[in-house]
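Q: My labmate handed me this sequence with no annotations at all. I'd like to see what the chain might look like in three dimensions before we decide whether it's worth expressing. Could you predict it?
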Amino acid sequence: MSYSVQNIRNVCVMGHGGNGKTSLVENLLYVTGGSDRQGRTADGNTVCDYDPEETRRQISISMSVAPVEYNGTKINLLDCPGYFDFSGEVMQALQAAESSIIVCSAKDGLAVGTERAWKRMAKSKMPRLIYISKLDEENGDFNAVYDALRERFGKAVAPLIIPIWDEDKRVTGIVDVLHKNAFTADETGHSKEIEIPEDKLSVVEKLYEALRESVAETSEEFMDKYFSGEEFTYAEMLTGLKAGIKDLSLVPVLCGSAVTGLGNKQLLNAIVNLLPNPLEGGLLEGENSDGEPEEFIVSPEAAPCAYVFKTASDQYGKYSYVKVISGHLSADAQMVNASTGQPEKLGRLYTLKGKKATEVKSLGCGDIGAIGKMDKVKTGDTLCDARKVIKLAPPDYPEPNYAMAISPKTKGQEDKVAAGLTRLNEEDRTFTVVNNAETHQMVVTGTGDMQLDVLVSRLKSRFGVEAVLNAPRVPYREKIRKKVEVQGRHKKQSGGHGQYGDVKIRFEPGESEELEFCEEVFGGAVPKNFFPAVEKGLREAVLHGVLAGYPVVNLKATLFDGSYHPVDSSELAFKTAAQLAYKAGLPEASPVLLEPIGELKVTVPDQYMGDVIGDLNKRRGRVTGMNPNEDGDQVIEAEVPMGEMASYAIDLRSLTQSRGGFTYHFVRYEDAPPAVQEKAIAEAQALQNE
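A: Here is what I predict for the chain of 690 residues:
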């Protein structure tokens, strides 16, 4: 069935891990006939968590699309992971949604995932509802969670649905404040209307009056009507509530149970009646074909345009998830990729429900679907009609900061690991892979340990290669602190022409990080045509220091004397002689190990400042400044040795209950303390002995 843009809602479902997002989506599919049975996360049979890793771990790893059809409206629910390692999936979903539902748990209170979801919504100015789940579970406390939400996020938070409980504090039903009626759920999960309990009548009136006040604040006309004592009509209440949600002055709170279905019909009504459709989602920022900023207006009448917000691959092929921004998409249509400027012929079109893809001939404006086998198209690309080329901004991914060295369990399979990671990176753009030529390691950097563990599991299940993760080696440097003069002589005689090269070189600390080569040879002791060979020999030698084999920096080498043989001297002989001088001279020049130092910026709430600074001191960090940011958090600036940062992403989460974040960038090298030098030299020797 095809839906007009006015009858489509694209809603991002987000919140803390384990708060019941997938279970809620599963129930909404079931009660609307979108699935023939209600799956459970614990049983691994939900529509949205279909990946083998999700089934095994019983958590959401990837964002899934679940279309729910209700009262003539198509609601594309984007079920997002709650665990922070997979926040890139949330950022992608936000690119395709006009509104969100933040799911909280009545059992667990105001979790950090709720706070982070709210911050993301506030940054993108996205309308939202809050849904308090697990009402019927033991130790659930709606009032405690609601009070915490009001305290944390302010008076914009207002209840639309409240629970009814008996004397044993078991939830038996819900009250719809807007409609002033009450419901319980029957054995089939469907709502059954009941009388509002006497003790709830005054509470409902008080809350309804608060909604009226919120509606009055959305326009001068409503304000005049409110102060004159007139009642709002139901249509006016909906208009005012919808306006308040759109301008973010109102965030309704609903509640229910994914197990029994209690309250979920009311949630569907709220989505349809109060959340914006794609036309009401606001202007999109983009760039035109000249690279100039341009606002893009969503319109079903305009030239076709679609945004690729996610890429997924399986054994059957590759799917590019798209949201149709304007016009409509047709299979096999000729488009232009605004990101590359290249023409693209669309493949087959599909609508998605979890892993189930249903082929369709077209996708309408505002709708979400997928295109098959678009090999050159990546996440963040915009597909346009050639008549109107515009490029929308790609997702704002978090900067990856948890690095591990990855290698195959079986030697010789490095290429398979690299190829597998390249394929996985098409799906997950939040990790990077670098082949570090200095440490001879492949380093994968992501958002946390769980993400990297999933990557290793997928390498095995999808590409048949087992990989292991280890802490990456620190790229130290070496330098000298004294001036020395040494001789290097290479002399070899073995029938016929021999080899002869003799150099005297002065090694001393230099200003440049690169080798500084000079010559002060008088009287032709070393012919000029051998100078390049001497320099080449030294440039090869400085790649491996004498302490632990790390590159040597800040070295000045001056060739000042030597000798040659008119027959046996050659470029190879002088190159070898220079390297012999290097090996003899540097150990005498007081060599020292240098460690990389990086600039660290840690963003944390005030209450964690002491713990974070104490931890930085243990890591030999030097705090250089502290400044508040626009969110009221503190930004601690420090310089910390790279060797102390391997586990920082994990440790900071532990210190701040996942409320802290950081960035870290290399700035310079400094002399390493004696204990660090000893450890690095011992590790280098052990590596050489392997």
